[in-house]
Amino acid sequence: MNSHEIENNVKNIFKNFSKENFLYDLLLAYGISKTSITRLKNGDFNLSKAEGEVLYKKKVFFREEETNKLLSSVDAVSKEERILKHKPRFAIVTDYKTLVAKDLKLGKNLDIPIEELPKYFSFFLPLAGSEVYHSSNDNEADRNAAYKMAQLYDLLINENHDIYNSKESVHNLNIFLSRLLFCFFAEDTEIFEEESIFTNTLVQHTAENGNDTHLFLNRLFERLNTDSAKSFPAHLSGFPYVNGGLFRDKIDSPVFTAKARKILVELGELDWKDINPDIFGSMIQAVVIPEYRSDLGMHYTSVPNIQKLIKPLFLDELYEAFEKHQNNAAQLRKLIARIANIKFFDPACGSGNFLIITYKELRVLEIKIIQQLISLEKIPLFTDAFTTSISLNQFYGIELDDFAHEMAILSLWLAEHQMNKVFDERLEGYGKSKPILPLKQAGKIVQGNAARIDWKCVCPIGNYDEVYIVGNPPYSGARMQDGIQKADMDFVFHSFKKYRDLDYISIWFYKAKKYIEGYNAKSAFVSTNSVCQGQQVALLWPNIIGNEVEIAFAHLSFKWTNNAKGNAGVTVIILGLRNKSIEPKYIYTDKLQKEVKNINRPLALNDIHIC
């Protein structure tokens, strides 16, 4: 459900306004299932014993209130232990003329005439899970953490002069930073059972001058990789076994100074539960790439841009299947099984943005299908009938940069944990996620050069597989390529004429065509529109578009924006490839979708030809 649909739903509340049903109509407007609303009305989900109150765990507290007590009442609610222990996101009080509400997580207030609620519908968007895809241009939690990590990184580099002496030592530093990030996130998001256990133990068991911090971290990381706590001191035995490969290899932590230890403690004091793994990986990647430092996070790909690619490639069709079969439980279960077997592959995955957003979108769709199944099959409450069928093992990637590769693996773990919490909250009483620890393999992310690696060795494909290739590969125009990239072009296109006039991204289009040909697979890449211009059209596209493969959809030129302070400033298109089909072809702009008979080989100064 998008924000426009929610806005219309809220407007409809006032077309046939009912005081008795106002709260229930409001929750329905934000996508809470009819089954859950019925349970709330019947008292199963209402945790308040007071007459006239509704307390819906992790969602909302509601009470009708006298006009002159609205403000004082909502303030009192925000401090009342019997209410707060159930962690409602919102407190709402109303006399049905005025509505006063408080976001108990962010501390924001709303005080409006009740009929103006449609204007302020966005205040309650967290009820619809909008924070799963928070798209602020200045995510404070991510930025604070990234800047602190940059400070720590610089201090460690200065103190450990040999840290960049070899490829192995650089890799070890990348692993070390990934381990720190995991510990910070784990202690704030209930992966570690005891809140702040990492930071508190660090403070209590290391000297302020920092000279034993590396020894503490070495011993802690060893504990996190050991199934039994018997051989460890009491202050480490409270940490769990993590596994997953993150702590498997023994590496020596860098030496700390007093200042570096202080920054480490300050990092632990940040609120890591608000970190977005889909943006944070890119921001932390900027920590170790000096030329990105001027704007940490600038190279992050925004959620709306990623959706422009994944929606026409596969997500729209999955939602259409959901809508088509929403009253057929057997077909809905088949749809879940289908989703659980699809492979998603990004052969230039960076720190994992496309894979992470794809994963989140699929988990959200799965929740919607399960909610519909609960309603259709009248499944009893508190049966824990459902667990997620979607696995990180469905996600494949190739990344050249070592640190980005490590961040992609870590970010997928963090995304899984966040979505498990969403799953448990949305399906409370009907589903329960499996514990994230010990960690399982976080996708199949390979470090290497995607131009040289056989993609089918990374993401195997067979006759019964369904595979979608996604991503935003490196561009590098024909005159901007470095020596390695030129060698890659020689390796892939040695039999082509004048291939040195092609953009570097041409490699990905050509290899995608070779991968999907003859299989149940599709691909879509973001690309500069230069591949649709001039001599590149005749050089590239006859080798891709032919009797077997065609362009299935295209998104016309738009600015490639991001979630940081500025924009990437690149004009791009999106091109989707598939095997020849009688299915419709579409052209997209930011606001329109147009069905067309054919999409020609791209040839235009600005956009592509349509016929």
Explain how this protein is built.
The protein has helices at 3-13, 22-29, 34-42, 70-77, 81-84, 140-159, 167-188, 197-204, 213-224, 234-237, 258-268, 277-287, 303-324, 329-339, 353-377, 402-426, 455-458, 483-493, 506-516, 535-540, and strands at residues 53-56, 60-64, 90-94, 98-103, 109-113, 343-346, 395-399, 444-447, 467-469, 521-528, 549-560, 570-579, 585-588, 593-596. By secondary structure, it is an alpha/beta fold. It folds into 4 domains: 3-128, no CATH class; 140-295, no CATH class; 301-446, no CATH class; 473-611, no CATH class. The two termini are 33 Å apart.
Short description:
This protein has helices spanning 3-13, 22-29, 34-42, 70-77, 81-84, 140-159, 167-188, 197-204, 213-224, 234-237, 258-268, 277-287, 303-324, 329-339, 353-377, 402-426, 455-458, 483-493, 506-516, 535-540, and strands at residues 53-56, 60-64, 90-94, 98-103, 109-113, 343-346, 395-399, 444-447, 467-469, 521-528, 549-560, 570-579, 585-588, 593-596.
